């Protein structure tokens, strides 16, 4: 099993690590028949209650995007950032490290609408691991190191299994001029070109479905 190595602290102010978007969390629960499901997600721990993980550290892919500035959402130094950070890859790394992890594929950072998905990690539990995680800064650095050595894959981009979207080209970005987008995004991204995308989006995807319709 690949190991996640420790790296140095980051080179900017710790206040940057206050979560950008405090919001109510929706648990990743088993889908009803015909609705969205997780194709292969060991990081989605369904026996964890909402109340238990709502205080966990929130990690968005934009924190590791080398194309972004700190003002645009990046939270690691540029030399530690990567081209195509995906939430599923972050969840994979967190799970392999042995941390208690919840993957939320339908949550989106407002500065990164094209790259949905986020991860919650139990920082208090991670601090008890060997080696321990000493802070959220340290946590982000360790994850950045993992993403450098284990880049996001197409499998990560297809982690959400929705009828009609399984074969969509996850590289076919419809990027508005001036937007900084990765070349690989989840198959539920509103930035992807695909005529059947809106028709097959389950109604229970909520805010994400509304966002996708807004960008038609």
Automatic annotation (TrEMBL):
SUPFAM superfamilies: SRP19
InterPro entries in UniProt: Signal_recog_particle_SRP19 (IPR002778), SRP19-like_sf (IPR036521)
Descriptive protein name: Signal recognition particle SRP19 subunit
Major location (coarse): cytoplasm
Molecular function in Gene Ontology: 7S RNA binding
One GO biological process term: SRP-dependent cotranslational protein targeting to membrane, signal sequence recognition
Gene3D superfamilies associated with the record: Signal recognition particle, SRP19-like subunit (3.30.56.30)
Residues forming coiled coils: none
Organism this protein belongs to: Tortispora caseinolytica NRRL Y-17796
Keywords: Cytoplasm, Ribonucleoprotein, Signal recognition particle
Lineage summary: Eukaryota, Fungi, Dikarya, Ascomycota, Saccharomycotina
Localization, UniProt: Cytoplasm
GO cellular component, one term: signal recognition particle, endoplasmic reticulum targeting
């Amino acid at each position: 099993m690949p190991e996640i190595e420790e790296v140095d602290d980051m080179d900017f102010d710790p206040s940057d690590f206050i979560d950008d978007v405090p919001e109510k969390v929706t648990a990743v629960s088993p889908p009803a028949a015909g609705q969205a499901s997780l194709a292969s997600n060991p990081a989605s721990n369904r026996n964890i209650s909402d109340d238990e993980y709502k205080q966990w550290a929130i990690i968005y892919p934009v924190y590791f995007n080398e194309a972004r500035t700190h003002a645009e959402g990046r939270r690691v130094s540029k030399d530690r950032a990567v081209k195509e950070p995906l939430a599923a890859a972050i969840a994979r790394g967190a799970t392999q490290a042995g941390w208690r992890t919840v993957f939320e594929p339908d949550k989106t950072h407002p500065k990164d609408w094209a790259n949905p998905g986020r991860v919650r990690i139990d920082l208090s539990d991670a601090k008890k691991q060997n080696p321990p995680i000493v802070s959220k800064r340290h946590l982000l650095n360790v994850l950045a190191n993992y993403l450098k050595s284990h880049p996001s894959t197409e499998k990560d981009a297809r982690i959400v299994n929705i009828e009609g979207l399984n074969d969509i080209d996850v590289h076919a970005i419809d990027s508005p001029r001036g937007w900084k987008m990765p070349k690989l995004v989840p198959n539920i991204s509103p930035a992807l070109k695909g005529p059947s995308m809106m028709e097959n989006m389950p109604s229970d995807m909520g805010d994400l479905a509304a966002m996708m319709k807004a960008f038609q």
